[in-house]
Please model this.
Amino acid sequence: MNLMTVIIVVIYMGATAMLGYVGYRQTKTAADYLIAGRQAHPVVMALSYGSTFISTAAIIGFGGVAANFGMGLMWLVFFNIFVGIFLAFVVFGGRTRRIGHHLNAHTFPELLGKRYNSRFLHLFTALVIFFFMPLYAMAVMKGGAAFLAATFQITPQFALYIFALIVVAYVIPGGIKGVMLTDALQGGIMLVGMIVLFVWTYAALGGVTAAHQALTDMGGQVPPSLTAMGHQGWTSMPKFGFAAAGAPAAEAHQYDLWWVMMSTLILGVGIGVLAQPQLIVRFMTVQSQQSLNRAVIIGGVFIFFMVGVTYAVGSLSNVYFAQKEKISCKIIDEKVLMDPGEKGDAKLTVLAADATDEVKKRAKTFVAYRLPGENDNQALHYVLKTPAMKVVKGENGAPDTLQPGLIAIARTIDNVTTMKGNVDKIIPIYVGSALPKWFEVVFLLTLLAAAMSTLSSQFHAIGTSIGRDVYEEITGRAGRTVLVTKLGIVLGLIMALVLGSMAGDSVIAVATAIFFGLCAASFLPVYIAGLFWRRPGPRAAIASIVAGFAVNTFWMVFINAKEAAGVGLCLALTGKPTLVPATWSATWNVVDPLVVALPAAALTLVVWALIDKPMDPAYAEYVFGGAKPKNG
Amino acid sequence: MLGIQDKWVFLGYALSVASTLLCIVYGIATWNRGAEPMRQEDVTWAQEEKEDEE
Model:
């Protein structure tokens, strides 16, 4: 990565800051359009919404997951467009705006609190956002950091700190928040970057049908660890079913992948988008339903190119890595032995000179190389050596050529991963290897844009949840709201950084899905009922949100094996990894919390609303457009 | 189907394209629908939002 890249990035960051500044001076936030009684251009509105929706978590995290799990993830593209754009804009957007303005609500917790006339609901929602949104912010920062780390050859931890600095510089002063033109610029950059990635990848692999066929033909190369979970090839859905209770180990986990893909990733993110606080407040900034109707066009196209391209290219990267990748380099050592640990799951380490025979026997062989332009002081690159690898030594000073012949996930295995690899590194390695150098810069800007537009909204939501929602609601004063909001942002950033430092590999998509699922289970029933049903009052809403949150959290901490292991509380309290009894189906361990918590929350709301007395008619009338009751 | 082995994956791919087309067609068909007059509450909301931004 040369000086030119750094200069282009600095120019871009400067342009973003300038647009933010100009935006403030020339009154171009969404609120300004409203005050002036004008519509923000639908393209600007759509790009602004889309760039907040789609982040590095989707491009890097879910792109990597698509490379590992396959094109079944295209179902998430459908959900993202149909639910995240069409239903959100056409069904929910207009009503959110109308009720939000009528109740003068400016944040999502405030909207729920005022809709149900409940202080508890207001505070509870704000605290859930404050404590859990840093998990999502961590995923976004990790996504950007993964690419920075791969591109600039720095450690992922250092790259994470760089992202934290970006947040400090751009988000805390509030310079880019709400400035439509900045968001639109970022959305535009993202669109260009992803279209180039789309065209380049399909062209390089011989066109749409040829590329997909090549991926289909690679079905035999799916690693045994994925086959055991139900992977049936990258252009097939995983095996669907529910394991019989007490089934032997070989059969117990054969449906795991389907449940992870469908219940956690596709359902969690696909439906959870409707209950994202930072997206819901965007609807309040539009001028009319007409603005939303018009913005649907660009919104749909934008999301198609963002996630559609990411998941298709992610999956197809397997074809590139296995069949096309040629690394022009200087091979330093063709037989570097690395130890994967006694159980084969430890971080790989280069073998010491005095390694025992036992360690040597289990060691894996890697090839160490340097790319052109890299000097002897820079860290070596490592790639796993298999029988599929081809090495062509350069003659007369010409560079050597390395054809690893690996599938995507195996290509990520090196001296900082375990033998499982790291899905979060797949897209960065693919872009660095398959696309021309100039695109690396375009893609870096694409990711910076994707990260900054989302992070600014996330941290704004985190900050206002403490400032406007908790501080003002509890003290009844607004005197120090700005200070408390900024303090909230700093605390949120620290939480995100701590989580990022603790999190292991392949964490981005899962962390995103956990947050989206939690939002859906806790907020979605009360949000939807709040917009369309007059009957539910504060008690029904509180019961629903608490039930959704509690069931989701319990399932996450004690039932879902992967999430329970990540939290560690179940093991600490009970000595068991999960509370699912051995006599039950092992598939329960991979059912996402959302599958149980969302119906629980919805049912609680409906039943409670029907058996309890309806919302005070005068207040309900006020919510849906009437005058404010005197005692309300 | 376009080199994709499983009809369910193809359906996901096809629905992604179809939902994008739906967005385009719906947006064009309703281009002039849904206009709403600005009310005082909209302006009040926007003014308070502006104060919060600053």
